[in-house]
């Protein structure tokens, strides 16, 4: 009988308030690509951290090639032949590719490392120049550095945590080729994801986690999206209803917006043309780090350096208005990072209401205004009820809420203001399926009510579901828009690499 | 094998957020007793000097308030700074310049001056403190200079300014060449609350200040904005709260409070400008602020506690023949044990079977 490469038996890990892994077992065969599927908070990361030695389980055993092992730290994991590619890269941006890889392999000389990087890159068809500084690489290339770094330790087991969240559809296909080649050579792969179609395309086996427990083990090639989804969330995702309607007058008009970056590793914006009308949802797709952050800061007013006249709401030039001024005009914004930007983690939900809402504040001239505490509490309580937020009450600290509930609260806070223009960044990022469906439904309700909605997202599926028109952002440039009905994944993928026909007249007519 | 380990709590403990200062005080007392024993003094006697002598009579209580007043005033201002992530540790310098400005005003008085000079003296002190703190604000705002270093260095500059004045232009010509100004006219004396005690209206101003700070922090949008800037700068940018305004507000408010304390001190208990005006209140107030959790009401109590240590330290010198630095040792012990005990707010101690 084949000895499993990795066997996790009855793993339990308890945190003070939650059972992250409850009697989890998992078996990975040699050369198998094994998916670990689950929603955020299902316990995937905890399990991987236990395998990689950054966490120790409270109970349970781990066998590698049939031998009982105790892995105490990542160094031991690597020595045992386990490699890991994290979702967030651990690279020094000011150093070259070779220098970054060299840091982990102190025994060799830099020249040897450079040579072995080139050799590995050629072997697996991963184009990469070892001499380039990391900050000049695209996100996909940075991931290649991480993969090659892991491969240089000749792993028997490679763990990839949500590897495709930063890739274009084409880059995903390339990655899959590499992973299949690795598997054919006998390396086992643990593939963590919540994207069902990827798992069905790539993996031989799948362990589904739900609420810290194993909900099922299956062969994904024999499953449908619906059956996998049932295993993952216990039910099928609700369907969205979107009615056709004619957009109204333009609400947001961005023309000829160019801006040099402020951060050292930021992106310059080039000649952005964008228009969002009342009653329409416009999406911006693209791989993160292509100028989304910079564009959103300029639109929200957190960055007021935009040239005069470049951003207009209706007839009014808002390019140099601060966020409060733009809110007064009806522009509301939901940022992608919730804790620390959308809310202050250590303040209560009620206090966090005051970041963008002033209904409970009177006498604005005096020290910014007097806070009516009872009214503020009432308001927060109403939002909690109305948007179905699971929280102790208006006095709960923002950081005590789960990601999905916090996002519902933030989205609720902005929607409740009845905005003329709502800008949302990664609206369902890290949010469970139920909350994500609710948030998308709220966005469509806003569209129906005649609000202009702009969504920046990395999830193409989401954009297909809710948008009327779609732009793609690449290296600080915005593509012309395409009507969603005519959009294809292939075309969007090509545009994500910056390959679209540039003709300024065309853009204006399209937009 | 059993071992103790710290485990993160899901929610901060309410019990320990109140219990921690009390436990810290108990530990400080215990460590103090050990300290006295090691120095060859009777620990009971030593502790009596620190914790009983300062409260045993009406006069002693009055003296306790005299020292608590500047500590509280300065700490209130510092709390605004620390809550907004502005690390002003130069309140001592703002206190000194406040005292200098107030002295300048007081020296203008002559035999015919009316009582109207008193509010002017206080305002001069406030202005002096604001000017000095404003220097830090300008350097931080315009040149992004680190406010910790700048405000600390300006303490020594302020000390030089004070010394220059009392050794030079403001030296009392009839003062036997002592480095001090002439004694201020009686009319400049800050009004006292009751005969037979040195407690002045400064105490009322400090208590009013505590109330005003509470309202500002917890009932005004500007107070909220100030704290958001300290807790989550990105959230402040998102909300549109100006970080420059927060910086200037924090430094000007704390400068004003420290300057006011300086004015109350020179025109109150001291009555002239001398090189001994700086008594370390500006630094001790940092401890007051943190022991009081930057909360306006709690700081009233911590100011009284630190004042106790000041008086206890002086008494320990005269009664027990201990060095004056014993005050500093006690202040340090309290802050140290408090920071250690604060761990219990977010963590709990667990006994666990040792694993390998």
Describe this structure in words.
The complex is a heterodimer of chains A (511) and B (356). In chain A, 47% of the residues are buried. In chain A, strands 13, 16, 19, 20, 21, 22 and 23 form a seven-stranded mixed sheet that branches. Chain A has a six-stranded mixed sheet with strand order 6-7-8-3-9-10, with helices on both faces. In chain A, strands 2-1-4-5 form a four-stranded antiparallel sheet, covered by helices on one side. Chain A is built from 17 helices and 23 strands. In chain A, helix 3 (97-104) packs across helix 4. Chain A is 33% helix and 23% strand. The longest helix of chain A is centred in the middle third of the chain and has 16 residues, at 169-184. Residues 505-511 of chain A have low confidence and may be disordered. Chain A is an alpha/beta fold and 511 residues long. Chain B is mainly alpha-helical and 356 residues long. Chain B has a single domain, classed as Orthogonal Bundle (ABC transporter involved in vitamin B12 uptake, BtuC). Chain B is 69% helix and 4% strand. Chain B has 13 helices and two strands; from the N terminus they run βαααααααααααααβ. Chain B has helices at 14-38, 43-51, 58-83, 91-107, 117-143, 147-167, 201-219, 221-231, 233-239, 243-270, 281-291, 296-320, 326-346; strands at 2-8, 347-353. A two-stranded antiparallel sheet of chain B has the order 1-2. In chain B, helix 12 (296-320) runs antiparallel to helix 13 (326-346). The longest helix of chain B has 28 residues, at 243-270. The relative contact order of chain B is 0.21.
